[in-house]
């Protein structure tokens, strides 16, 4: 638990320094017409979380080799930093993500070649991108990451790395919540997305992750996964590129109805509800709770259809 406090304090210190560095070198959010906020903000915020985690692990005397997830996330962080600086094309970014996921699965997680190996590689790439696209509104992705990492800790995943990353996220929140002064950037979304993607895998696949996996453990990830699928389907129907940034995501559409502050509360509340369902099912493993997934996903689908119809004439980019 000391790792949480150390990474929290370290991130509070590192974040403004990284923000000044990004501003000085003009590493700021680019095309503001494709973002919910109309003001350019410094990127590279994920570096402050990464540095805070390193401080916590070094202070605790914990060898980095004991945490393969850190190596995987570090690799994706480098991809994100590169993208923040040079703005990679979608094709190049996806290629680097696939290479990063392959290297992570093969040499860091030490998975043998098998169907599971392929699924893990695809899952890391898929969820990293899913997490990346919910980082389009102040505090949204970071709040989600904080909730998921808390859920992982409660489930009994006592890795020093997961505690450290949780502390770093909490420490970064003051700089990233509504009217953010510093963005996670692709460095942060790639770091957190890839780390969470691995930490939520069943422990019997990778040796770490969630023990005694239940189907209901998929529910807390419903928001980012739904957002990626929702945007992909609606843009395909409109014959728009699914690879470009825009303000037609779930959070953006909901904010047009309820306002930005309420949107963060609503989506966080949905994630908390899904986490509660997961924890309750772990408390009663003797019951077959898989059927709960069907009504919840059906309700989510119905809600997305309603949201799409309610805002389909208002998905144009914000000017």
Which properties best describe this structure?
319 residues; single chain
Helix content: 55-70%
Radius of gyration: 19 Å
How many strands, which pairing sense, and closed or not: the largest β-sheet? none
pLDDT averaged residue by residue: 90
Report the principal-axis shape. globular
Number of domains: 2
Determine the structural class based on helices, strands and strand pairing: mainly alpha
Secondary structure tally, helices: 13
Unreliable runs, pLDDT <50, ≥5 residues?
Answer: none
What does this structure look like?
This protein is mostly helical and 319 residues long. The chain folds into 2 domains: 1-34 and 42-211, no CATH class; 214-319, no CATH class. It is built from 13 helices and no strands. It has helices at residues 2-24, 45-59, 68-86, 90-108, 115-133, 140-154, 160-176, 185-199, 203-206, 222-237, 250-258, 260-283, 293-311. Helix 6 packs antiparallel against helix 7. The longest helix is centred in the last third of the chain and has 24 residues, at 260-283. The protein is globular, with a radius of gyration of 19 Å. The mean pLDDT is 90.
């Amino acid at each position: 638990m000391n790792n949480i406090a150390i990474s929290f304090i370290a991130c509070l210190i590192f974040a403004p320094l990284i923000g000044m560095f990004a501003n000085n070198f003009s590493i700021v959010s680019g095309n503001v017409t494709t973002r919910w906020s109309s003001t350019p903000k410094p990127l590279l915020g994920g570096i402050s979380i990464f540095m805070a985690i390193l401080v916590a692990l070094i202070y605790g005397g914990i060898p980095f080799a004991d945490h393969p997830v850190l190596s995987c996330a570090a690799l994706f962080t480098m991809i994100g930093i590169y993208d923040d600086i040079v703005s990679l094309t979608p094709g190049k970014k996806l290629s680097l993500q696939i290479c990063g996921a392959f290297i992570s699965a093969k040499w860091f997680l030490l998975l043998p070649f098998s169907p599971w190996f392929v699924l893990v590689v695809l899952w890391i790439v898929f969820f990293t991108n899913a997490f990346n696209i919910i980082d389009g509104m102040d505090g949204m992705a970071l709040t989600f990451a904080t909730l998921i990492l808390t859920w992982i800790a409660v489930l009994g995943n006592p890795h020093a790395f997961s505690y450290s990353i949780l502390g770093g996220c909490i420490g970064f929140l003051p700089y990233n919540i509504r009217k953010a002064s510093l963005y996670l950037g692709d460095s942060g979304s790639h770091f957190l997305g890839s780390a969470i993607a691995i930490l939520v895998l069943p422990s019997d696949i990778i040796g770490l992750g969630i023990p005694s996996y239940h189907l209901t453990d998929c529910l807390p990830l419903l928001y980012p996964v739904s957002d990626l699928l929702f945007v992909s389907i609606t843009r395909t129907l409109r014959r728009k590129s699914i690879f470009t940034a825009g303000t037609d995501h779930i959070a953006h559409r909901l904010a047009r109805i309820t306002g930005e502050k309420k949107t963060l509360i609503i989506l966080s509340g949905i994630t908390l509800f899904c986490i509660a369902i997961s924890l309750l099912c772990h408390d009663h493993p003797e019951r077959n709770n898989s059927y709960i997934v069907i009504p919840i996903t059906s309700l989510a689908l119905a809600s997305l259809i309603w949201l799409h119809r309610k805002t389909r004439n208002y998905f144009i980019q914000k000017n």
